[in-house]
């Protein structure tokens, strides 16, 4: 089993710990607030909010559970296909529709629509930096938030369907629930919104929400918060339970095929909880865990870690033990590391970015396949299109596309 990278990468040692129990539901229920968003004149209702295919790159982390597993095979070499320059850094995950249309937000305040060859089709000014990963519904409509404190719904052609004032920066990804609603965090509120922009409810947490909620098949929403808690909220906006950690929870949770939750925290732990909020295990990775947690082909839990030992770690889903890890070559600092969520392709290969300006490709065992350099941190989680394009953003302001070998 591979446990280190080529060249200067060092072996690391990790330890485990376990702790807190679930807290009772003491918070107030979600606040129902009904009313239409601001719509463009004579616009039709937006289409049904449902991804086209599980694992397709139409939503944050590829499905509502956030597993980060693609049905497509990625490149085995770093062969550039094209790159598209925006006006500022890109930290959001790109998405792609079934027809090949690609969407990505930039900190220059624009959402860009590109064709599969990297040519710009249109851009829309969202009036503030875009951290939010867009979502695409079956009709091809696109939903995205921005730091203008607005969530915007757009048609495939870039026409505004509606805008919703959410009173704070809308930085999380937007996800679809089984009941057809879209959900996202903005400031201290988790929002539930109908396809036409009408607010169904909002749940007010005790801190800022920078995680994208994972959605269970019964509609339960799980999200982390900077009040040191992971929340479970029912489809009607009422709190089911909350779990206390030792620090901010900026790592978006993943719901595994085993029905258990996995997420990281600034207290250096990756935790596994059951659906009732009970702790299964907690593993100390000795650095902030802020990247969304992913699931490998063999079920391993993939966690990106900040310094002083920045790396990608694969954990046993049953007990939390370390199966392998891959160190990255960033500075020896607690403020840098891996913030990009790991993508797993159909053959189990793993792709992720790091603060050393590289995109990494690993074999399922953790052995390095290739690296691809950019001119800025790679915080953007990569995605694969049906044609085998590997897409990811960088703080160099470019959306990069790597292709499979002809």
Write the layout of secondary structure elements.
Layout: E1 15-16, E2 22-23, E3 38-39, E4 79-85, E5 95-96, E6 102-105, E7 110-114, E8 120-125, E9 135-136, E10 142-146, E11 150-154, E12 160-165, E13 175-176, E14 182-186, E15 189-193, E16 199-204, E17 214-215, E18 221-224, E19 229-233, E20 239-244, E21 254-255, E22 261-264, E23 269-273, E24 279-284, E25 294-295, E26 301-305, E27 311-315, E28 322-327, E29 343-344, E30 350-353, E31 358-362, E32 368-373, E33 383-384, E34 390-393, E35 398-403
How would you describe this protein?
The chain is an all-beta fold. It has one domain (15-403): YVTN repeat-like/Quinoprotein amine dehydrogenase (Methylamine Dehydrogenase, Chain H, 7 Propeller). It is built from no helices and 35 strands. It is globular, with a radius of gyration of 19 Å. Residues 1-36 and 40-52 have low confidence and may be disordered.
